[in-house]
């Protein structure tokens, strides 16, 4: 009633006096005096406040397509995958020992022609050098003499056998012819084997009866392997062969396949086995290729205390050059996973692993349960289903936006 009886000026003056001389006045008295002036309306008086913006739903980050593009956020549909664990080791590209050969001579002689230079390609069986050798000439002569003697004795043996069959000649004569033929045949075979050892092919040996005597000293040196010449050891006119002389003329390498020498520590060695896939990369060009482990050394290196592991790498374009240092990844495990996401898609929100699921209004926060992981991916055991779309790149931007919205509230 007092509030209704007091006029407005009196109420204002009374409020001023109370604030000045009675600062500890009860709130009831202050309300009576100030309310009399009609300055404010208590909650529930029937008046409606102006409508503000609709509050954001909890756990939702609203972004337009333009904002998503500017933020560099990329999405992907999740699904099944394979969880792989990799072992990172250093490596060096080296020529394959199975595809490396040294072109050498097996007799003494003089180099009279070199047909290949460094870097030249050579086919298997191609002549790369010519050699003059007295030993070759003598061996060819011994073989031809033994061959002629064996052929003559074979004719006599066949004649004596025919006479013995008709009982025209004695058995003793037949047996002597047979023994002589067998003896000469053994000598012929020995002379042939000597020529084969010295490097003559069967076709060259068969062609000797028709070869001019002036070429008896000449020997053709052929490549046992197709590839490229990587080293030349002699010059024209050089004496080669035994007795402390150079025996190697060239080194040839087939680079269609190369080896990768890997150094694996003893602690990681139990994870490595033959047949595992190895991915190699170069830091300079960031190029990569895949190979397989073909050899695991049983002995540790005395200096590095690491085991030698060799992987074979296809190199049809000869792009991988021996001597190149590479970084290698050995896939030590590979398991199928029902729901697999990239590691960078997982963010920690309120202490829980969380992903941002794409919805019509933006991205919804979704706590998930993670399982096993590897170098790049994480298994999701609960919270996501295959086919859902989540942010996989720059998801930390969404986390920042979520934190900004929470701070404003």
From TrEMBL:
Keyword Transport recorded: yes
Residue stretches making up the CzcB-like C-terminal circularly permuted SH3-like domain: 339-399
UniProt keyword terms in alphabetical order: Transport
UniProt KW Heme keyword: no
Gene3D superfamilies, per the entry: 2.40.30.170, 2.40.420.20, 2.40.50.100
Domain CusB-like beta-barrel per the UniProt entry, residue ranges: 257-331
Region (Disordered): 36-59
Occurrences of domain CzcB-like barrel-sandwich hybrid (ranges): 100-244
Annotated family: Belongs to the membrane fusion protein (MFP) (TC 8.A.1) family.
Protein name per Swiss-Prot or TrEMBL: Efflux RND transporter periplasmic adaptor subunit
């Amino acid at each position: 009633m007092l509030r209704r009886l007091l006029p407005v000026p009196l109420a204002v003056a009374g409020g001023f006096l109370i604030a000045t001389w009675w600062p500890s006045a009860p709130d009831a008295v202050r309300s009576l005096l100030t309310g009399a002036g009609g300055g404010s309306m208590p909650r529930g008086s029937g008046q409606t406040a102006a409508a503000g913006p609709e509050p954001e739903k909890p756990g939702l980050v609203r972004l337009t397509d333009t904002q998503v593009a500017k933020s560099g956020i990329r999405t992907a549909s999740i699904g099944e995958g394979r969880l792989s664990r990799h072992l990172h080791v250093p490596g060096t590209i080296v020529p394959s020992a199975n595809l490396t050969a040294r072109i050498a001579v097996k007799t003494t002689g003089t180099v009279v022609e070199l047909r290949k230079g460094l870097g030249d390609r050579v086919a298997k069986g191609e002549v790369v050098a010519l050699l003059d050798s007295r030993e070759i000439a003598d061996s060819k002569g011994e073989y031809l003499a033994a061959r002629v003697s064996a052929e003559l004795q074979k004719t006599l043996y066949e004649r004596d056998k025919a006479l013995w069959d008709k009982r025209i000649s004695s058995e003793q004569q037949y047996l002597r012819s047979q023994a002589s033929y067998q003896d000469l045949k053994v000598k012929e075979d020995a002379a042939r084997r000597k020529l084969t050892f010295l490097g003559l092919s069967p076709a060259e040996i068969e062609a000797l009866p028709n070869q001019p005597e002036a070429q008896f000293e000449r020997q053709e040196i052929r490549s046992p392997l197709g590839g490229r010449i990587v080293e030349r050891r002699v010059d024209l006119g050089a004496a080669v062969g035994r007795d402390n002389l150079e025996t190697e003329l060239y080194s040839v390498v087939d680079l269609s396949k190369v080896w990768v020498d890997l150094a694996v520590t003893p602690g990681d060695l139990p994870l490595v086995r033959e047949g595992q896939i190895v991915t190699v990369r170069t830091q300079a060009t960031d190029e990569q290729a895949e190979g397989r482990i073909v050899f695991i050394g049983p002995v540790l290196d005395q200096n590095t205390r690491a085991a030698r592991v060799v992987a074979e790498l296809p190199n049809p374009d000869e792009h991988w050059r021996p001597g190149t240092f590479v970084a290698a990844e050995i896939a030590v495990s590979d398991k199928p996973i029902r729901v697999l996401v990239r590691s960078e898609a997982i963010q920690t929100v309120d202490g829980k692993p969380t992903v941002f699921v794409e919805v019509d209004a933006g991205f919804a926060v979704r706590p998930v349960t993670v399982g096993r992981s590897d170098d790049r991916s994480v298994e999701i055991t609960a919270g996501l289903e295959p086919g859902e779309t989540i942010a996989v790149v720059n998801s930390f931007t969404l986390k920042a936006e979520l934190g900004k919205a929470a701070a404003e509230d």
